[in-house]
Amino acid sequence: MKQVLVYAAIGGGPVIFGALTYYRHRVRKGNFENQGFFHSSMKLLQGYTSGVQILGKPINARSVDMRDRAHNHTTGLTARMKVPLDGSNKSGFLHSWSTRPVAGDEWEVNKLDLEVDGHTWTFFINPNASSKYSKTITEEINKEIETELTITSMVESTSESIDMDDSSQTETSTSDQELKYV
Fold first, then answer.
1. Other residues' Cβ atoms within 10 Å of the Cβ of residue 103
2. Rounded to whole angstroms, how far apart are CA atoms 23 and 97?
3. Cβ density class 169-182: b for 16+ within 10 Å, e for less
């Protein structure tokens, strides 16, 4: 009988420890993803037209890796996160830096970066925090991204114009089409 109890303790101990560790990780991750800084960051991303076009709609946030403490942590007054994203065109990451003056107050997103295909660029800096944060990339990479989006938009507009020309015999100039950048 004693031997059975010893084996149960030896075998059951790691199982219980693993279950508790998994549960703690899930609770911590769930709390992290339910915070205001997570939702505000995702909302700002949805309003970033160029980013939405690059990733493609719909954009889905995958699970945040809570083991990546360098990118995913909060002190209660500051928060940093790296959210994996999946779009219909591409995948990437949303990097976010947020603060709040007092625990319990609303979170303010200070800076947002988008990382796609190894390129990272800043698309949002809160005017209230602009002295503390700077852009992540050079203007050359930003210009390349804008040029790629403009070309893509022109091709899509041209194909829509051709469809319209066939049905209504009216011309639409692609130079009149503009992308709005945030």
1. 8
2. 27
3. eeeeeeeeeeeeee
Q: Domain residue spans in the chain?
A: 1-34, 36-137, 139-182
Cα distances from 36 to residues 28, 70, 73, 182, in angstroms, run: 15, 20, 14, 22
Q: Which pTM value belongs to this model? A: 0.62
What single-letter amino acid sits at 12? Answer: G
Determine the pLDDT at residue 143.
61
pLDDT of residue 151: 64
Q: Peptide bond preceding 58: is omega within 30 degrees of 0, i.e. cis?
A: yes
Q: Which residues of the chain have pLDDT under 70?
A: 1-32, 138-182
Helix (H) or strand (E) holding 115: strand 108-116
CA angle 136, 65, 90 (to 5 degrees): 60
| Whether the Cβ atoms of residue 67 and residue 51 lie closer than 8 Å to each other | no
The architecture in CATH of the region 36-137 reads Roll (3.10)
pLDDT (0 to 100) of residue 123: 94
Question: Which of 35, 38, 31, 44 is CA-nearest to residue 61?
Answer: 38
